[in-house]
Amino acid sequence: MHPHHHDYPQAVVPNPPPRRLLKGQAAIVTGASSGIGRAVAISMGAAGANVCLNYSSEAHAAEEAVAEIESHGSHAFAHKADVSNEEQVLAMFDAVRREFGTFDILVNNAGLQQDAKIEDLTLAQWQKVIDVNLTGQFLCSREAVREFKKRGVRPEVSCAAGKIICMSSVHEVIPWAGHVNYAASKGGVMLMMKSIAQEVAPWRIRVNSICPGAIRTPINTEAWDTPEHYEALMKLIPYKRIGEPSEIGRAAVWLASDDSDYIHGTSLFVDGGMTLYPGFEAGG
Length: 284
Ligand code: BGC
What we know:
Layout: E1 26-29, H1 35-46, E2 50-55, H2 59-71, E3 76-80, H3 86-100, E4 105-108, H4 123-151, E5 162-167, H5 180-200, E6 205-212, H6 227-234, H7 245-256, E7 267-270
Parallel strand pairs: 1-2, 1-4, 2-3, 4-5, 5-6, 6-7
Helix pairs in contact: 1-2, 1-7, 3-4, 4-5
Bound molecules: beta-D-glucopyranose (BGC).
Beta-D-glucopyranose is lined by residues 113, 169-171, 213-214, 219-220, 223.
């Protein structure tokens, strides 16, 4: 498929059967109408969790994902909210309590890019990306912590009172020219996540991040939509294939499950080695 890489073994994408790691739990996934959020919501549903799929504009796509989750036997519903709007976030968490009683997992996934050279980056572009990617994660995390602290641990459901997963990026550590607002938001997510983790650990609230590399989603279509673009992307990925959304879905299920109970305050990179300074493969 990618003849330039005939020297390497052909890439095989795993597709293991889901395990019911989240049976009896409920999850909120923000930005769940497309891309990584959609895959995480579906993986969590297949793992036995009930799921609230937050979306900001794509109602139809969110409802399709809801239907897919319900076909696995879990309960799911879509809820429209702008995660950067405090009132809408509070209303969403109320809706989740009405529907599920309580919840065990928050996946702070909603995020976007608005790219421009630094000299052309408008205040509106800066603000929008910080509002959704960083402030949105803060507002949702705060509501989750309030719920988890109040409710406490139910040992029959999970060892933890609750789990928060922040969707960060390799760009929480890799600087990114032309994407200053985005990289700043993800750098902010890193220390927001770790600071919340430090604060809430005694209440058995687990907080971690997933840092995806290049994953095949609508946010980065230009990076993989032609053979030339794909070839250029491979220079940045030692494992020599793009990541699939389902691979982030499986990582999120595991990070939300008791299988990872002692993992706390960590950034889990799922990036095919993108953070390994691939430019140093030869030279240095
Ligand atoms: C960005 C993508 C990019 C990837 C690797 C992600 O956080 O949203 O556009 O392809 O990082 O650079």
